[in-house]
C-alpha cells in the first residue's frame, strides 16, 4: 500500500532497522504485513513509522503512552511463568483499525505524545516494582519493534523475560529480528481470523500473515499462546472457529493454549451486546472437539472454563479466578497430582505467590 502525504512536517524520530530504500527517496517498511510504501515526509498506516529524507524513522522510540504493572495471566499467558508480575508498555499508533478497540485513545491517535522512557529506564522501573518480566501491549508492538528489541536486550541483561501481546500481522523480517529475543507471545485473533470480518472491522486483508508469523515464532523457540476475541453476531462463526482451532492443532500442536475472549462494546461498536456466555461455551466445545487440550474462556470471571484441566484425568490442575491463581495442583515437575500427567507450563508458581493487582503508572 502507498501511504498518504501528511502535513505539517513530521517530528524527527529514531533510526529503524526494518525497511528498504526505494527510488525517489521513498521507503518500503518491512515491519508489518502491510509493507507500506512511504514517500518522503509521510508516515505509514500505523502513524509512527515515517520517512525522513529517504530513511525510515520511528517517531515513538522511547515515548510511552501507557505503563502498567499486570499479572502475566492478564496478557493472557496461562502457561508461562505463572504468578509473575510484568511491566507493561504501550505507545501511540497501530497497524490495525479495529472498530471496537478498547485502547483506541492511544492506538488510533495520530499524535506522538507520552512520557520519555529509555530502554534502561524501562528496566529500572520494572525492577523497582519487583516485576519478573516486561510485556509490550496496549497497542501493536510490531510497529515499535526497534524500541521493543532494545528494551528486551536490556531486560535480559537483568534477568527479566519479555513477551509481546500482538495481532501477529508481522513479516518474516520482523520474526527474524525477534529470534532469540522474544520469550513468549500471545497472538490475538479477532473473529477467528475470518477474512470478511477482518476486512470490515479491522481493515486487514486476511489471516495469512498471522498464521505465518505464528509458525515462525514457534519455530524460533518462543512460547506461543493463541487468543481469539469473539464478537457477537459478526465475529462468532462456528465454522471459522473450527477452522482456526484445527489449524492451531495441526501447525502448532494440541498443547498450545487457546483462549476464547469475551468481547464488550467499545469505540465505534457500541450497538452490540457483550458476547453471550452460551456462545463462548459452544465455541469452547468446538475447539475441544478439534483436539485442543487447553482451551480457556477469558473475561468471564468465575466460570469453570477458566481453569486448567488435566487432559488425561480431567481434574483441575490449576484453579483460576480471572487473572489470579487460587490453587496449584501440580507437583515439582508440573505433573498433575492426580495422575502424574505432565502439564506444559513453563515455570512454577512462586512459593510466596501473592496476586498481582493491575496498577496503572501513567
Description:
- The chain has 362 residues and is α/β, with parallel strands linked by helices.
- It has two domains: 14-58, no CATH class; 63-360, Aldolase class I (TIM Barrel, Alpha-Beta Barrel).
- The protein has helices at residues 104-107, 119-128, 145-157, 172-178, 195-201, 208-219, 238-251, 277-289, and strands at 14-15, 19-21, 27-29, 37-38, 49-52, 55-58, 63-64, 66-71, 85-90, 115-116, 133-136, 161-166, 184-190, 223-230, 258-262, 295-298, 308-309, 316-321, 324-328, 359-360.
- It has a nine-stranded mixed beta sheet. It has a three-stranded antiparallel beta sheet with strand order 1-6-5, with no helix packed on it.
- Strand 15, helix 8 (277-289) and strand 16 form a beta-alpha-beta unit.
- Helix 4 runs parallel beside helix 6 and helix 7 (238-251) runs parallel beside helix 8 (277-289).
- The radius of gyration is 20 Å and the shape is globular.
From the structure above, extract its key features.
alpha/beta; TIM Barrel; 2 domains; nine-stranded mixed beta sheet; three-stranded antiparallel beta sheet; 8 helices; 23% strand; globular
Amino acid at each position: 500500500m502507498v501511504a498518504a502525504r501528511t502535513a505539517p512536517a513530521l517530528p524527527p524520530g529514531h533510526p529503524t532497522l526494518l525497511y528498504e530504500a526505494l527510488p525517489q527517496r521513498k521507503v518500503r517498511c518491512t515491519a508489518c504485513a502491510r509493507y507500506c510504501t512511504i514517500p518522503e515526509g509521510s508516515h505509514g498506516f500505523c502513524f509512527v513509522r515515517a520517512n525522513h529524507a529517504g530513511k525510515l524513522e520511528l517517531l515513538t522510540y522511547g515515548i510511552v503512552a501507557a505503563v502498567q504493572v499486570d499479572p502475566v495471566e492478564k496478557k493472557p499467558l496461562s502457561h508461562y511463568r505463572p504468578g509473575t508480575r510484568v511491566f507493561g508498555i504501550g505507545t501511540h499508533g497501530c497497524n490495525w483499525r479495529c472498530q471496537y478497540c478498547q485502547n483506541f485513545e492511544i492506538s488510533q491517535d495520530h499524535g506522538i505524545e507520552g512520557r520519555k522512557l529509555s530502554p534502561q529506564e524501562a528496566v529500572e522501573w520494572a525492577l523497582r516494582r519487583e516485576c519478573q518480566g516486561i510485556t509490550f501491549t496496549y497497542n501493536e508492538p510490531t510497529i515499535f519493534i526497534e524500541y521493543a528489541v532494545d528494551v528486551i536486550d536490556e531486560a535480559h541483561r537483568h534477568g527479566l523475560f519479555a513477551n509481546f501481546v500482538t495481532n501477529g500481522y508481522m513479516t518474516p523480517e520482523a520474526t527474524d529480528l525477534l529470534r532469540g529475543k522474544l520469550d513468549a507471545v500471545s497472538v490475538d485473533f479477532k473473529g477467528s481470523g475470518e477474512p470478511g470480518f477482518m476486512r470490515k472491522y479491522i481493515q486487514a486483508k486476511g489471516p495469512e500473515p498471522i498464521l505465518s508469523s505464528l509458525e515462525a515464532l514457534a519455530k524460533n523457540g518462543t512460547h506461543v499462546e493463541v487468543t481469539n476475541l469473539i464478537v457477537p453476531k459478526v465475529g462468532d462463526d462456528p465454522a471459522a472457529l473450527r477452522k482456526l482451532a484445527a489449524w492451531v492443532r495441526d501447525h502448532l500442536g494440541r498443547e498450545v493454549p487457546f483462549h476464547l475472549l469475551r468481547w464488550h462494546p467499545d469505540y465505534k461498536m457500541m450497538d452490540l451486546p457483550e458476547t453471550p456466555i452460551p456462545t463462548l461455551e459452544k465455541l469452547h466445545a468446538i475447539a475441544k472437539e478439534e483436539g485442543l487440550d487447553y482451551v480457556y474462556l477469558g473475561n468471564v470471571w468465575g466460570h469453570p472454563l477458566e481453569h486448567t484441566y488435566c487432559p488425561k484425568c480431567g481434574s483441575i490442575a490449576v484453579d483460576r479466578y480471572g487473572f489470579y491463581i487460587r490453587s496449584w495442583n501440580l507437583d515439582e515437575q508440573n505433573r498433575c497430582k492426580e495422575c502424574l500427567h505432565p502439564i506444559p507450563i513453563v515455570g512454577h508458581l512462586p512459593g510466596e505467590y501473592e496476586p498481582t493487582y493491575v496498577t496503572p503508572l501513567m
